[in-house]
Amino acid sequence: MMFAHSTFCKNHVFKQFKKVVYLKLLRNCYGTHNISTIGFIGLGAMGSRMARNLLKQFKDVYVFDINSSATASLAKEGASVAKNLDEFSKMDCIISMLPANQHVLDVYQGPNGLISKVGADTLLIDSSTVDPEVPQQLATIAQQRNITFVDAPVSGGINAAAAAQLTFMVGGSPEGAKRAEPVLQAMGKKIVHCGDSGSGQIAKICNNMLLGISMVATAEAMNLGVRLGMDPKLLASVINSSSGRCWSSDTYNPVPGVMDSVPASNNYQGGFMSHLIVKDLSLAHAVAQRSGSSTPFGKQALDIYKMVCEQGKADLDFSVVYQYIKELQNK
């Protein structure tokens, strides 16, 4: 056992060493070795974990959030706290992780927006989930000032954010995507260039629409099995080795006690709040209508999550839809 533990530790250290070397090579190859100061805006459940991983790879990381306790927590780990967004005007790279369209537009656009204040060659990365038209609009304005703007929404959840295992879906020019890659590598395991500006958001919206649908379906299946007398852990193990397997069942199961370290086993606290999946499903519905695309299950999932929120569960993790379905049967 001591030998096995020693081998594991050596392998872990070697993997971490390889990642550091790889990041340095990326910075040199893609011209981002000049990035010495990074600003991070938005320290929610995802953003705070992403910023912590940046601190492991970059010396000067500045953070900003209206929640002072969030910035104080990062300050204890070595981050510098910006008093306002004006302090970000001298940053080499700025990353944002914000709740909705208007927040992103307010930060970057207009006379007080960062695009009008940062220097040429600044790299702007927005990892929020917003309408694809938002990054398309901002990238056009940024390009006029020789500023690189890319949309890079994420997938993977809070556990992947903490472990720097996120997937980034990048929209922007090939050159912009390459510039962003070494920075994103500090926070994720997979970087996918999806195409021009807005393409990252298109991929994210499609992904999260499927996520919302699959979580509702997983909750329904698990509830049915439990109602018919199945042990939930046993049912989950069968599903996860069968054709019904999905991320909602094998990584983020919505039934309390089936999995450790997921919100369902912590009274649905933390994680991805239900009002946020409503936002993402609403975005999917809006772009589907604009493009004339049929998304009946996406619309139904949206309606269900709206009812979840109306029942006072808006700030609980979206896997709480299991409780909503469970309570529905009682009515």
Explain what you see:
The protein is of the alpha/beta class. 52% of the residues lie in helices and 12% in strands. It contains 13 helices and nine strands. The chain has helices at residues 2-29, 45-57, 68-75, 101-108, 133-143, 157-162, 174-185, 199-227, 232-239, 247-250, 274-291, 296-313, 321-330, and strands at residues 37-41, 60-64, 80-81, 93-96, 123-126, 148-151, 154-155, 166-171, 188-195. A six-stranded parallel beta sheet has the order 3-2-1-4-5-6. Strands 7-8-9 form a three-stranded mixed beta sheet. Helix 7 (174-185) links the parallel strand 8 (166-171) and strand 9 (188-195). The longest helix has 29 residues, at 199-227. The radius of gyration is 21 Å and the shape is globular. The model is unreliable at 1-5 and 20-33 (pLDDT under 50).
